[in-house]
Design goal:
Number of helices: 17
Distance between the termini: 28 Å
Helix content: 40-55%
Shape: globular
Radius of gyration: 22 Å
Largest sheet: 6 strands, mixed
Structural class: alpha/beta
Length: 456
């Protein structure tokens, strides 16, 4: 569950950070713009506020290259500074190139995605690479970005233990798992947040996406697990509930154990029963950790400032509730469409062309929730996407089952093999990633994907 090598390195990095503080004229905190990144950034912000140091914080959604993004800050190469990367970080090659220009900048890597080192050059000593994947930890199931940033902040000062709830919120948005499946440091931090009463643990029906709703609406809005029999229609859910003699207007949290068991048996899905978290100081939609995290991610891509402000809110506005509902209903609609679509299926992969079927901005999320809900064969890798101008864009997803049966190779490895053998550009981690290929390479990808996976 724990990794002594990782913990020792994190402790050393935090101590050196404190020792180096006095020399930094400025600290730049960069975080991702989804729920995990927003909460990770909030943890670092609170940590820096407590240290009373001068800093600037910004979010980065990866829409431009790292080189172009970093060049926008106009660093002075003669002045000692620090950059903290939270839930996002450039590759080793980009970091080394950057530090050749700015050797007086210390780098603290608090990103949990698979780190790509530069195989030809050694990382400079002023890079404190706390990325847990380098220590053999799973950068999703065992430790997400907010968990890593919380552990760093806690190592800097025990006062930061009051930020454990932010890590719990980030986990809810990034792992897309039931709490029953949390492992290692994710689980340890959740248990700490529960013990400190920053979050409350419940057991019962889990309809993530609609956990805050009455049961008929919750069944229609559930995206984890997706309930295909309901097809996103509360009327269908109401009919089923009435046949079970369960009042459709009952809130999910108010269901009895007997009612929970009836619903689980009716849909023959054991994932409908489990544990969920609420935030005692919040109300409505924001009271529920998973739903709160989803709303942060929905807002974070375009307006990370508003998403960050949501962390201090006690309840969601009418406008934000509608944005949330539109998003969730869109996911359910798209999953219903995905189930019925024609698919190109080979021995090891499933390729789905969504062009004209599902909006491009929903391809990635549709792939994620199709994978998490195992709507497709979990022993195969899913390529879900479509045509965009002169290229094909794929969100790539897979399962732990696939990774374990293919020499511990996941999406990131397969994408690299595709790039080497066929072409394109992309990346990711074990369970998820993305790749863009020219239109003329689609057929070669279809023809060669099995041989690529066979050679893992």
């Amino acid at each position: 569950m724990i990794n002594p090598q990782f913990e020792q390195y994190l402790e050393t990095a935090s101590m050196e950070f404190l020792e180096n503080l006095s020399k930094y004229s400025q600290i730049l905190s960069i975080h991702h713009s989804d729920a995990d990144g927003i909460t990770a950034g909030a943890i670092i912000k609170q940590m820096l506020n407590r240290l009373k140091v001068k800093y600037t914080q910004t979010s980065f959604n990866l829409e431009i290259s790292w080189e172009k993004y970093l060049s926008s800050f106009n660093f002075d190469p003669s002045i000692p500074q620090a950059i903290i990367f939270s839930d996002v970080c450039p590759s080793g090659q980009i970091l080394i190139d950057f530090l050749e220009q700015f050797p007086n900048i210390d780098i603290y890597n608090l990103d949990h995605h698979l780190f790509r080192p530069d195989p030809t050059r050694k990382m400079p000593e002023n890079v404190y690479n706390c990325n847990p994947t380098q220590f053999g930890l799973h950068g999703l199931k065992e430790i997400v970005g907010s968990t890593l940033n919380y552990l760093f902040a806690k190592a800097v000062s025990e006062k930061n233990t009051n930020l454990a709830w932010l890590a719990a919120l980030g986990m809810g948005g990034d792992t897309l798992q039931h709490i029953n499946e949390y492992k290692s440091y994710n689980l340890l931090v959740i248990e700490e947040a529960i013990e400190l009463e920053q979050v409350i643990l419940h057991e019962g029906l889990c309809l993530f996406g609609g956990q805050n709703e009455r049961i008929d609406k919750a069944l229609a809005q559930s995206i984890l697990p997706f309930v295909p029999e309901v097809e996103g229609d509360p009327k269908i859910a109401k009919t089923i509930l009435e046949s079970l003699e369960i009042i459709p207007k009952t809130k999910v949290k108010e269901l009895t154990i007997n009612e929970v068991n009836q619903i689980v048996a009716r849909f023959t899905n054991p994932n409908l029963k489990g544990k969920f978290l609420t935030l005692p100081k919040k109300k409505g939609l924001l009271e529920y950790v998973f739903e709160h995290a989803q709303l942060i991610s929905i807002l974070g891509h375009d307006r990370p400032d508003i998403a960050t402000n949501l962390l201090s809110a006690t309840k969601a506005t009418k406008e934000f509730k509608q944005k949330y509902l539109d998003y969730i209903q869109g996911i359910v609609k798209n999953l219903t469409t995905f189930v019925k679509m024609d698919k190109i299926e080979s021995t090891h992969a499933i390729i789905v062309n969504l062009t004209g079927k599902i909006p491009i901005e929903m391809w990635s999320d549709t792939g994620s929730f199709a994978s998490i809900n195992q709507i497709y064969d979990p022993s195969k890798m899913l390529f879900i996407g479509g045509e965009t101008k002169s290229e094909f864009k794929f969100s790539v997803r897979t399962t732990s089952q696939f990774i374990e049966s293919h020499n511990n190779s996941g999406v990131n490895i397969v994408i690299k093999k595709i790039m080497d053998q066929i072409g394109g550009d992309g990346g990711g981690h074990g369970l998820a990633g993305g790749i863009r290929i020219p239109l003329e390479l689609l057929q070669p990808l279809i023809e060669q994907i099995d041989s690529i996976i066979n050679n893992l």
